[in-house]
Amino acid sequence: ITLAGVGYGEIIPTLHNPALRLFNMFIVAVGVMITVYVFSVVTAFLVEAEIRNIFWRRSMQKRIRELRDHYIVCGLGDTGRYAVEELQKTHTPYVVIEGHEDSVKRFQEHVGDAFKNLLYVIGDATDEAVLDEAGVDRAKGLIAAVAGDKDNLVTTVMVRQKSSDIRIVARCADVKFSDRMVKA
């Protein structure tokens, strides 16, 4: 009881009953072993998953930084998914900007093994830091396929300000934004 740190006194005295003392020692030892095992499994799961995720994320960011003349696809909606599938079929380098990581995971599960090494950045496509992380200054083109026309317009304006020679294709669902989108 003292070595295991269980911290209780015996309710029934076991001083004169060796069998009961051995049984108590067995229960305490098994309880300690189970506790240590559970803590080690949980710790290993958390540490391995986080370390693997950190190294994988750094590797992906390095591969994105090395890209030149690639395309950036903003959004994995219907239009964005179609664009990514076409870029993948033609072996054209690309990076995806998506607001939610679960959307990326669902896309990868849906399309299969061909997209296991999908390069992506999680964030808002209208954020300049996210565009820089995707390598907009080294990109050949950008496909603005976010669901909102306003977001696509803002993204288009920001990218055009950063690079005057990048090719931009933007999704526009509302006619009232089409003239502004063409001007941008």
Keywords:
single chain, 184 residues, alpha/beta, five-stranded parallel beta sheet, 6 helices, rod-shaped
Describe this structure in words.
- The protein is an alpha/beta fold.
- 53% of the residues lie in helices and 11% in strands.
- It is built from six helices and five strands; from the N terminus they run αβαβαβαβαβα.
- The protein has helices spanning 18-66, 78-89, 101-111, 128-133, 149-162, 178-183, and strands spanning 71-74, 94-98, 120-122, 141-144, 167-170.
- It has a five-stranded parallel sheet, sandwiched between helices.
- The longest helix has 49 residues, at 18-66.
Q: How many strand units?
A: 5
Structural class: alpha/beta
Computed CA radius of gyration, to the nearest angstrom: 28 Å
Series of secondary-structure elements, N-terminal to C-terminal: HEHEHEHEHEH
The share of residues in extended strands comes to 5-15%
Shape: rod-shaped
Tell me the helix content: 40-55%
Poorly predicted runs: none
- Output the number of helix runs: 6
Q: Biggest sheet: strands side by side, in what order?
A: 3-2-1-4-5
